[in-house]
Structure prediction request, 273 residues.
Amino acid sequence: MKERSSVRIPRVVVGVFFGLAALFPLAWMALSGFKLNSDVLATPFSFFPPSWHVENYVQILVDPEFSRAMMITFAGAAIFTVFSIAINSMAAYVFARLDFSFKRTLWVIVIGTMFIPNMAILLTSFIVVTKLHMLDTMLVLILPPLASAAQVFFIRQFYLNIPIALEEAALLDGAGRWRIFTRIFLPLSQPAFVVVGVTSFMAYWNSYVWPVMTITSPNLYVVGQYLANFRVSRGPELGLLMAGSMLAALPVIILVLIFQRKIIGNIKIAGLK
Prediction:
């Protein structure tokens, strides 16, 4: 018992240290939203506001541009998440259960795309969407990143853990592949879809470089663009900027807190085979 305690205590201390280090910027941003503009970067440094002001949060909440950016980002993230799950789950089923020519070769090609940095194909992707006349539309933010090799790999690993006996019984009963996928695999896929859904939502919500390249209309700005252009359009209102940044981070934080246990557990399950 003493040996276990001697090992556990340092782990707890290290975990607490890194946890506080990770939460410190977030806590400072949230508290800075209650500060006056002159207090945000004041010297000497003050973690807590000298005086509390809720005006920044109230002002940013009633800002129609901020509200529009939040709603557009949320709508786009929701649509992107649904279609991402649909497309990648079907591809995962094909690679997990069907036999066809050049399956191994195609799987290697799909997995190989995971090792290509997004920045390496940024320019070519921009040329493609330009020729397709997709600039300044929500489609340019939703369609290009839908197919994800990482998500196909993850869902495929999950499908490999589903007993083949279920599928064989359905085939004997006369069910086709599409019916097997929709009636058996989809209902059993909720754990995997939680992980894929949360990561897809976060990826869309936190995107910045691609929207900046492809969206120029202020009416279609995602929340990241709005905050990036804040100092240009609104001036050095740092307290207001911190309040907006905190409110923009809340949906993702809440989503992760709700599903954190399922995410960790499901990643372990999918990695068993």
